[in-house]
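May I ask you for just one protein sequence along with its backbone structure tokens in two labelled lines?

_____
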Amino acid sequence: MFYKHSKKGKCCILIVYVDDIILTGDDSSEIVRLKEFLGTKFELKDLGNLKYFLGMEVARSQTGISISQRKYVIDLLSEVSLMGCKPAPTPIEFNLKLGTDKDGEEIDKRRYQRLVGRLIYLSHTRSDIAFRVSVISQYMHAPREKHLEAAYRILRYLKGTPGKGLHFKKIANQNVKVYTDADWAGSVNDRRSTSGY
């Protein structure tokens, strides 16, 4: 659930997920009023500044706010028994072409789908793997050994960079910079292009 209240250029935002709540904004009086109101209806515990929410770690500094999923990465590596693996320098091999052809051994579809689903969630704070995850997610209906190897390559890359994430700088300039990655006519099956942001 998401609630937003604004008045006179001020803003108060309430985000609810099951029994966790984030309350933020630039209208401190509205935040206090909303906390008091919620306290009359529910038993609340104010944990102070946001530090951890749904697998995302939030850190504040003089330069801004950083969001990462370090613990999530470590738990994922541990779950697939890759904690002791050698880190990869990049999330995918150069010029790797994946297709849906019948080459290679079939693998456990449910296990592959769970792994790719967890990587999709991780790509919310790791834009450096978003394109690669979008590539391997195209084969969730009939994964082969080579698709799993590509997923493991992403995990090996994450092993070397577990703490990377998003950093929101504390500056007056609010311009948004966007980077894109594209693979022009790179699909071995239909020669279509793939792009990611």
About this structure: The mean pLDDT is 84. Residues 57 and 144 are 34 Å apart (CA to CA). The longest strand covers residues 10-17.
